[in-house]
Structure formats: structure tokens, C-alpha cells
Amino acid sequence: MKLNYQILTLVFILLHASSVLAHHTKVTSNIIYAEKINQNGDPEKLELDLYQPRNNGKKKIVYLMHGGGFLDGEKADFNEYSKYLARQGFVVCNLNYRLIPDEFHEQLNYDIYATSLVFAMDDLDSAIRYIHDNSDKYGFNDHEIIIGGYSAGAVTSLHYAYINSVDDLFLLSESDIFTNFTQEKQSFMSKFTEKKYEINKVLNIAGSLLSPYLIHEGEPSIVSVHSVGDDVVPYGMGDTDGTGIISYGSKAIHQRADNLQIANHLITINDDDHASFGSGIENENCHDCRVMVDEFLSQQD
Fold it and tell me: For 28-298, which CATH class?
């Protein structure tokens, strides 16, 4: 009888602990941060989920963007990783952004991809502005800003972080994807060269840049997780997802960061593919990636 009582007591304690842990993070879902026009000319409401840890001592906010090749995916893909980061003390904004409309999927070309990248960057900019412009409501104005994502979300975050000058826009215009780099598009993108809020760090999961020379001395530090065997987004340099778009993956990005003495950490996975650590999910080939990423993001610049 005594043993049964002890077991019941232990079960009660465990259940109570689980309840406390479940309520350790405040989650506010489907906050509309902007309404934009998509490539089809239709209005689209853009939403984010906000994860707020009870213990907000780190003063760091992470903006996460899902993968999907700019064709599909949704913020729910990052739900589990968002909860993990919040448990580590980070505020997390997990956001949706404008994708290429379904009716364009059979007629994809460089201009459609270029527009989708620019739109996604613009949406990330709007999410950051929304949260920090409403500092009275959310109280995050003094937080270090970390942006990142997986695959297309990482591509977006990388370009947003490292496009900071007119020279960067010129360099971008020389890439294959921006063959139709109109004055209107350049004018629209000029907002990215004058960011309202400083970006401090980048989390890159299987992403790439159109040129590593977009990165300059003194720009945001970066941590990347990328598999050598990635056949979608190149680990080094190569074709991106069979589109013919040449991009530079994590190896090239971190070589550039090393040359410029920018703080960085490259987590290379030798025996896996593009899905390795996708959306922050660990597997047997990357069983401690979360801890390594957390350690880098937690460092003070």
C-alpha cells in the first residue's frame, strides 16, 4: 500500500511538472502583421505566431521563415523548433510570407523566383517593423534581432541580412535571377539598404546567397547547418534545386565570413541530404545541432 502511494505521488509530481512546462511559454497565434498584394495581384493577409518565454532574460528575438522553395510550406513547419527556442529563453516570431501562386507553378522562370525572393524579404522586413514598432504592446525594442530559416526561408534571411548598400543591389543585378532588374525593382529594394532595425545574427539552415560578396566587414554574425550531400541547395557552389540558378551555400558563405573576421560557426553534416535539420528537427546525423546553434545564438556580440 505504501509503495502504491509513493507511485501515485510520483505520478502527480510528474504531471504537475509537465503542466508547468507546458505553460512555460506564452503562444499568440495568427497575428496579422501585414496585408500585401501577391504575384497574382490578389491581397493576402500575412500572419505570424509569437512565442514568449516566461523568463525573458536573454533579450533576443528570433524571426523564423519556413522552407518550401517559395512554392509551399507554412509557419507550422517551425512550431516544434519555435517551442524549443522559447524554452531556451528566446522570443520567437514564426511567420508566413508570400509564396508563388499555384497557377504560376507550371510556368516558373527567373523573374518569378526573383520576385518571390524580393516579396519574402519585404515580408520579413514588415514582420520586424510590426513587432518592434509596437514595442509598447510587445516590449521587444531593446532585443537583439536574429533572423533565419530553412531552405527558401534561409535564402530570404541571408539576403535580407547582407543587402545593405547600393553596391549590394548592383551586385545582385548581375546575377542570373535578376536579369530583369528594373528601376522600379531597384527602388523597391532600396528599403533593405536602410533597415529601421539592426540585424545582429543569422541562422542559416541549408540556405545560400546569390553571391558571397554581398557579405562585408562588420555585418551580422552567422551560424549555419548544412549537409555536404544537399542536392537541393548547394553546400558549396552550384545549381539550386534544378532551376539553373547558381548560388553559394554555407561553405562559401563561411569562407567569406572567415576572411572578413565575422563571428561564425558552420555545422557541417557529412552523411545526409537537404532535409537534415530541416525546420530545426534533429536526426541521427545531427543529434546535437540544436545545442550548438543555441550556444552560438546565446553569445553576446
Answer: alpha beta
